[in-house]
Amino acid sequence: MSSDAPPVVRTGQSPARPTDAATVTSHPLGLDRARITGGFWADRQRAGAEAVRVGHEQLERAGNLHNLRLAAGRPGSGDDGGEAIGPVFADSDVYKWLEAVAWEYARDPAEDLLERQREVTALVAAAQQPDGYLNSVVQLRSGEAGRYADLPWSHEHYCAGHLIQAAVAQVRCTGDRELLEVAVRLADHLVETFGEDRRHDVDGHPVIEMALVELYRETGTQAYLELARYFVDARGHGLMASYGKEPTYFSDRVPVREATTVEGHAVRAVYLTAGATDLATETGDTALLSTLDAQFATMWATKTYLTGGLGSRWDWEAFGEPYELPPDRAYAETCAAIGGIQWAWRMLLATGEARYGDAVERMLFNGFLAGVSLRGTEYFYVNPLQLRGGSRPDENRSPAHGRRGWFACACCPPNVMRTMSGLAGLLASTAPGVLSVHQYATATLDGDELGLELTTDYPWSGQVRLEVTRSTGRSTLRLRVPAWAEGATVTVDGTEAGPATPGGYVELERDWQTGQVVLLDLPLTVRTVTAHPRVDAVRGCVALERGPLVYAFEQADQEPGVELDDITLVPGPDARVEHQPGLLEGVTTLTLRGRPARAPEEYRPWPWPVDGGAPVPGDEVDLVAIPYYAWANREIDAMRVWVPLGAPGGTPS
User: What is the pLDDT of residues 466-502, one digit of tens each?
Assistant: First the structure.
């Protein structure tokens, strides 16, 4: 399909790259201009690089590549009789992995990655049908008659969306266009098939909306933007109900433009809103953007865990009702945290508001990072805030198994890979005369007017040093001050440089000179936090935070005989803070005083006593907390984020 009056298309290695015509406050610095060079996130990215390479082996073992070979007429080995293996969305894991390879190649070019990318891309291209259709499982199981026969569950647009995102990443990071040509043929097929005057339908799992807008940004083809608009606006009008499905799960109960919150399957919901945000910025739809802003605020206030985790129900992997946030039954799928980051990042580019940078930070360090092991090659699908002692693993996703190398439904592992490899793209953005730094890591940033070298031991230290490495003259440097950073200060060459108000940006306008040094100091005071009273599952409990990190108590760190299921915290002196380089690849621990609270001797299981059933406090002991993201890297045992707060005398309050 030919391009119609293409917009001014920007260059750069970013997964979300608004055009110059987009109504955004800034444009992201891509991986070609933002590089993580050391410290906390560099360690995680090195582990992630190994994970990307292992990912190809996992896709081979799981049968994903086998399906594409069969669809391409290149039968694989084995006694499967030429049958497709795995779920109908199996192709999507290949595409997310291909996207991860592209970002990883941009981060650290390596010939083995390029060879794997080209090998798998050629396989995908060979599996595509002459009219552009592509879904290997549908092709193998149902043929042409099975196309789009069950859109609520077939994930055909979902797979197409991930293919398009991989293709865009590939051309931006390697210059290879073969997958982009596949994506364009597939997108043209969708344009010819779906729309108000064609087949009026939507896929049960959003992501195509984000993908089509990004393909428009890459190619300038207006039809892709219009199809994205159609898919956003068609949802919420009962299309899923026409298949006999309950619409809430599919974010199809209320139109996007009328919704006041998110509901249903958490990943579906935030992928949809992220795509709607892309649409709003490229079409200048301020009303839609305002609606999405309100939806995010409601989600963040009433449906988000302390960790930034999204989705409280195992049933349908869904958001619950407002304040329905039980810690031990939290679903908080790793993919949902990734989708939340994608949405918050797009809202940050659109609005410039620091609260979205705060949201990205909370989800990155907690809800997302807990989903992957320190080795980088094992994953949680589900991220509870409490695991009881002696928990028995049952089905595949149960966190009581510990992190796993792969899943029967393996959406999370390659999603983690692409997010980790592309992480530097979340650090900063630029506007005329302005460079905004949103996340802190040891890194280099190359803005339009200003180049910076960042050095920091964040999140263990709150000091961030920014040295000017290049300047074209007068410009503004904006630094996000997290909402938790009370008492933050900023200096330029040792001189205090204006207020650093928590929850905003400190703005430094200067005729910058090479060698000037900005020091941002974010106090990492230990915070004891409580939930909204309506979160009755943790009423009377507290949790600990330090800087961007949520903390958890894990059984392995407690004194012998102390069971986490029984503990209460004792109000008293501040926590003892200690950095331990040899623990969990280097973490800062918090030590507080607490008591185990055992059941009274007269307690009976049934009927429960009317009086005399209060727990009996034991002797005070030290309780040690570690960053939540690091739990389950040693053994699988009890863990909890929320702990009951005892009274000063020892009786639970």
Answer: 999 999 999 999 999 999 999 999 999 999 998 999 9
What secondary structure, in 3-state letters, does 31-58 show? CCCEEEEEHHHHHHHHHHHHHHHHHHHH
Catalytic residue (one of 317, 449, 545, 554): 317
pTM tops 0.85:
yes
Closest CA to 371 of 48, 40, 587, 96: 48
C-alpha 262/C-alpha 612 separation (Å) is 44
What is the bridge-based pairing of β-strands 474-481 and 434-437? parallel
Q: Do residues 604 and 553 lie in contact, with contact meaning Cβ atoms separated by under 8 Å?
A: no
CA 39, CA 72: separation in Å to the nearest integer? Answer: 44
- Edge-to-edge, what's the strand order for the sheet holding 463-471? 34-38, 442-446, 450-456, 463-471, 517-521, 489-492, 495-496
Cα separation, 384 vs 314, in Å, equals: 11
Residues 155-201: tens digit of each pLDDT: 999 999 999 999 999 999 999 999 999 999 999 999 999 999 999 99
User: Which class for 17: exposed (0-12), middle (13-18), buried (19 or more C-beta within 10 A)?
Assistant: buried
Find where tokens 């069971």 sit.
563
The DSSP string of 186-220 is HHHHHHHHBSTTSB----SS--HHHHHHHHHHHH-
Q: Do 595 and 563 meet the contact criterion of CB atoms below 8 Å apart?
A: no
> Which ranges constitute the DSSP H helices of 303-408?
334-351, 354-362
- Count of H helices and E strands in the chain? 15, 23
CB within 8 Å of 348: residues ≥ 6 apart: 356, 357, 360, 429, 438
Dihedral angle over CA of 309, 314, 317, 323, nearest 10: -50
**Separation of first and last alpha carbons in the chain:** 67
C-alpha triplet 246, 248, 250: angle, nearest 5°: 90
Other CB atoms closer than 10 Å to residue 276's CB: what's the count?
Answer: 31
Q: Which two tokens stand for residue 58?
A: 């996992």
Query: What residues are paired with 387 via a beta bridge?
Result: 639
Task: Dump strand ranges (E) for 555-652.
Answer: 567-569, 576-580, 587-598, 616-617, 621-627, 639-640, 643-644
Q: Which residues contact 481 (CB under 8 A, 6 or more apart)?
A: 354, 488, 500, 501, 502, 503, 504, 505, 506, 520, 522
Catalytic-labelled residue, pool 159, 173, 335, 411 = 411
State both tokens at 503: 């929850």
Tell me if residue 409 is catalytic: no
82 backbone φψ class: left, alpha, beta (φ>0; ψ -120 to 50): left
Residue 412 is a catalytic residue: no
- Are 241 and 257 in contact by the 8 Å Cβ rule? The answer is no
